[in-house]
Amino acid sequence: MSSSMAAIDATAWRSGWRERSVAEKSVLYGGIIALSVSLPPWPAAPMLFLICIVSARLADVPLKHLAGFLCAPAIFIVIAAGSTVVSVGINPWRMTTSTTALLAGTELIARALTASAATLMFASTTPMTMLMNSLRRVGVPAACVDVVTVMYRLIFVLLESVNLIRLAQISRLGYSTPRRSLNSAGLLVTAVLTHAWSQARRMEIGLSGRDFGVPLPALDTTHVSAHFVRTSLFLFSLIGVVSIFGSTS
Question: What is the SS3 assignment for 63?
């Protein structure tokens, strides 16, 4: 999980939309999520998913990155859809399905995948530091933003600790047998938890030393593009009209 977060954040810093306002991307990807849930899935979901693909190309986000990180949620989505498609009877034991259930499962997959793609694209074009600055500007308490920022950075510190400890264990053949593997895994968890506790304490002391909860000034050179917002809203209106009239016809 932590390595995935690191890869997503690294992609966000390399993205061509890194300097775009968080408000613009919130309108675009937030609108995609809202429409994927509220509109009829056909043809709204494919059209919204296409917008995610096009925006990935415009933002210089590799499609391989998008496909790779969609695999894990796609597995859970398919499993969840399967539970709605198949009905299991106990006495007598049988598995049944219907055309209505298959249609509902397909709609669930389309909606969830589209919303997941939009969420991933927002994360892949918005570095965490810029998101935190935006939360401060919209009035989120500075103490909450500080806690989120510290926890986010602590994740990468712990990830590095896990990698170093595991590498040392592998070098000493700590995973050569099942018994040694179990013992090494226990020692790894113990060491990481101990390190997390001490590191959290240090960060708490550091926050206290810099007036925890007091907002710090930050340079902000981003401006909201009215053209970007209007274009997004126009596309959403067009998709809404096509989806509503297409489903009623």
Answer: helix
CB 105 within 8 A of CB 82: yes
Q: What is the average pLDDT score of the chain?
A: 85
The CA distance from 237 to 234, in Å, is 5
Residue 92 DSSP one-character state:
T
pLDDT-based confidence at residue 239 (cuts at 50, 70, 90)? very high
Radius of gyration (Cα) for the chain, nearest Å? 23
CB 11 within 8 Å of CB 124? yes
CA distance 131 to 26: 10
Could you tell me the two tokens for 59? 């933002």
Query: Are 148 and 136 a contacting pair, CB within 8 Å?
Result: no
* Contacts with 173 (C-beta within 8 Å, 6 or more apart), sequence order: 180
